[in-house]
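Supplementary Data S3. Sequence and structure tokens for construct A.
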Amino acid sequence: MDISQVLFIALAVFILPGFLLNLISGLRLPWALLGSIPVSFGIYGLASWLIGLTPGRFDIPTISVVFAGFLGLGIIWRLLARRFLLPPEIVRLGGEPAQELPWWRRTTLLGLADGSWVLPGLGALSAIFLLATRALKYLKESDNGGVESIFQGWDVHWHASVVQFIELEGIASPTRMGELQNIETQAFSYYPTAWHAGVWVFKDLAHISVIESINLAGVLLPAIGLPLSVGLLAWKLVGNRGLTAQLAAALAPLGVLGVPALYWVGYYVGFWPYLTAVAFSGVVLALFMSVPERPVRIFAAALSLTGIVQLHPASATIVVLGLGLWWLGEKLWRPSAGGAVKARVRDVLFLAVAGIAGVLLIAPQILVGARQTEEVNAFSATEDLTRSESWWRAIELQTRHTEEWGPLDVTWLLIFAAIGALVLAVWRRNIWGLALWALSLAITVNALLPFDNVAGKLLGIVGGLHYNTAHRLIMPVAMLTIAAAAIGIVSLVRLITAAPLGNKVPLWWWFSAVVSVAATGVIGYGVVVHADKEISKADRWAISSARDGRMVDDYDLKAFDWLATQPRAYEGHIFGTPADGHGWMYAYNGLPSISRHYAWPISGYQSDTEYLDRYPSKLGAGNDGDPDAPNRVDQAARDLKVNYIYVSPGNFWNFQPTLLRQTEGLWFTPGVTPIYHDHQVSIFAVNDAFSDKELKAMRAPGNSPEPLPPLPVDEDGKTIFHRPAR
């Protein structure tokens, strides 16, 4: 299938479910489209958990049943909203009151008739197109397979395994991920799976591989979300629907292209579900901010919150902190409508209903997964910096991995952001945006160099949910900085064109508006050119560098394919060290490796998994002086049904040593037989799992690319395949 057709299916899978549900629940077309992807992942995430509670498989028919249920709820909500809430859109169309039109006409026609979305839409679409096409180009040109290339990263290995687990087992529930990772113990493990569930639907409908599906989704989703979020943040920071707000919302998305700390570093690190969640956090925040004036959006806002939380729970902190500061700094003083007390109570009530509904939908999952928060909080990525260096590093958006782009001059970005902040504070009397930026900045600085006081502990609570890593926490800082810079630039343009005169001279308003639009367009083009110059230093590196084959290369892929054709390759398990990347065989062609992640499974010190890892050379080595007696390691291989051991150094991290007990010791282990060797790849069959005939067939001439050592023979010259006594 052509790549353009595959991408069309991806857009349909990620957009259509949420878009249709948003329309049915009462949103106009622009907001229905804007909130579509977070709501779609809300549906996929809840479907994965609900279906996981039943014996049924997570597949297209069961997902369709859950989606039909949500459509029914959307219709019920729409009817209730019409009956008990204020009319959703009080405007007129051709003199006809909107509330008197059929609901479907109010949903679509009024949205299309609202021209205030045109300029922001053009800016966002331009940024999405430029960002996505650039990244897709580098992905297709990557070594070792292009769109099928394996991203040699810690997180991505796990994401690929989850999608393959859904494919093979029909299990997508976030509360059942222990069944995937902890093969021996099946110990509980919670991991949010909305991203993986949605990507599996894309994979299934597009008929592509697991690896291609995660590669395309990893590129596409944040390329859509980041421009939309930054544009909406600029819109909401200005706080009205005027031309200044429209132009700022159109210009801000283009700024995403040139800031490495957002898309490019996020993609390189490989935390693609997290990046997607943060990328759409601005969309969800803006949708919540519209609820007091448009309470019909409560349903969509609640589901959008569940969507990004099920992508990654940490993203909720951006929405909650932003919404709280917005209410304190904006809505408390300027309520949506009605009397002072009544309006404030009404606003809080609507926001609370949306937030509580969203939390309740995912509360069962979060409560079950809460036991793992200590593991997340345990991460730390402090740096050797002075206090002033930590502040400036964060202000200049120069966190981890941005050094790959060399010295980045962000002077003009910060100058325009400062002008934008001044405009917001003086003209719009907006303090919530500045407060959110300052708080996000402090949380980032605390991750770089913790404050030794109570404030540091409080900031660390939020930062801990983001693994205490500055290159994650810097993202809302960067998004707000870009939005403020766009506001600063557009405000200067409006000032230079004497826009305030338009209040007194209508003709001048039109002249100023046309010039402002044209000037912003030219500036936008300049932003793109400048971004291209800055980003081109390392943008290809961000997409391609982790596809260099350092963990899984052509020799591994060749070995995976060969092993897949051998007896009982899919009937038991394949053992190896998790750190060497061999576990990618599970995502690549479904081979049942025990390692589904570079991280070690939960097994325990004296577990079968631990014995096989520590003492593989004891296989068939006897026990208590009896060379034929089975020992603890033999029993471990039987219990785990290990048929093969796969060895392929080196390891993921530089500090992880090569395990000589596997790379060297297995060649002299009596209970295994070497059956394949090609450069760094060696495969050993556990004798106990095969007959002599099968072992000889696997060692037949031509099967192994490189010669295998001779095997021991008895007095009659017969090959010895030693097995412990059963």
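Construct B, processed identically:
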Amino acid sequence: MKTFENIHDGETYESLSPQEHRTRVLAAPVVLRVRELSKSFNGLKAVDKVSFNLHRGEVISIIGPNGSGKSTTINLISGFLAPDDGLIDINDQAIAGLSAAEVSERGLARTFQNGRVFGSLTVNENIALGYHKKLSDTRPLSSVQDTPIIRWLNLLGETAVSLINGPAQKREHKDVSQRIDREIDYYRERLGSRVNDATYTLSYANRRRTEIARAHISEPEILLLDEPTAGMNQSETAEVLQQLLYLKEQGHTILLVEHKMDLVATVSDRVIAMDGGKIIAVGDPDEVRSNPLVVESYLGRKLGSDDDVNRVRTQVRAERNAGVLNSQNAVDDQEQNSLDFGDDTKSLLTMKDVNVYYGQVHALQDVNLTVPQGAIVSLLGGNASGKSTTMKTLLGINKVTSGSITYNGEDITHTSTRERVKQGIAAVPEARRIFPQMTIYENLLTGAYTQKDRARVAEDVAAMYERFPRLKERRNQLAGTMSGGEQQMLAFARALMSHPRLICMDEPTMGLSPRLVEDVLEQIASLRDDLGVSVLMVEQQAQLALSIADYGYVLQSGRIRLAGTGAQLLDDPRVQEAYLGGAGRS
């Protein structure tokens, strides 16, 4: 690995100011060269003549609103899409149009916006896969893996070697084990005790850590990170930031896509801002984020105004709901883990003393939760606090060990997920989970699979196009080619196709730019205000969630620790303690 000292003649990272470091890396050799890169989808110009250089040891962040072309650009660079036009070189070798595997072999490793680990494999096994392309003794015929007709010889060679497992292979396996241990050391507190656990059992943040370790283990020429902190809370984001700074100190060349501007400003040498498929600004972080074009396109409004607007909205809503709760005072010093609703408030869904186990793990402990009709309820807490488990239990995916769930006056504790959907409970899952190889129209139809009346389904599709005009414009486009914000619109529309009375949303703002976050929150509020749909929302960003919530619950270690109105919880310091992983009270 080329360390910072190697690149800069023995000088250490700490001895240079950010400006000096920026000057040095811009004088270093170019590792990645992109020229006039273009890509269209059904006539829509997603990337339009994008050009830039990435120098050895440099960190470049690409920012911009959802739909600006960021994800398409990095998918073109990493081989997941073929460009319509343009050049891409890694160390002066042309890679444009090569497959993702071929690009990886040439020195690029990446992570993904929504996180992609192999759930049935352990943490160790997932990380080991990142080094597979570097193996030689274990892959004796890897040179023919891309050769037509005889490429099968590579698989035959790997199979034969795995059966023999001679001294050379054992040495290579030992080397891989040592490299895995080194990667685990970076996240020892988080992953150290989980190395032999299947990754599907990990929290979202730990799956992301596993994915970064898998990309880093091969010591790639270029490390491409797509939203590495998406879905993480502040303390977890800070941990990732420290890891990125460490990689930068070690001289890694990094291309980063990220919405969190504080992280971008701290770690980046240069920032590229995109909008409408074009680069609208390039420069140092402070220069780019103060650029008027960037402020207008990326943030949609002046910095600092969102908090004031959201606070006013919350206060107005709290006043409108006065009298709904028997107690409207701020949560006192005693733990308050339930809400006492007035007689005028009708409950749509209630969990009472619900307990859920994962094997021997007590995932939910005596959870009591109510979602009133026509209300937004936010479910808050750090990773592994029980939020997603609660939502999966409400949807019928997890079995209830004890306790009960009542929906619209009926006990649905042991009702199947399908029946719950038919009764009016819909879901917008974490990371949206649209069907990428299906069109927008086909995705909408999957939301109506319980409907038998074709005429009504057609009317519903038309209604979704009216509510989300962007979907109508792109109705024949493959859903996987849309931006994150557009996919979130599609997830909302698909959920509405089943005529729900309650929608469960898991991290609806994950990976979205600030302007798109505001749009999504407005859409969620309109579900309540215009359609009378109740919403149960799991959200990492507590202030955002509480800005539109009527009520909220805070989970910690499978227990509800706090409950109150959105206004009460917004200013309660104990929310921060629970949300950022503070020790829970017994």
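The first strand starts at residue 30 and ends at 41. The first helix runs from residue 4 to 7.
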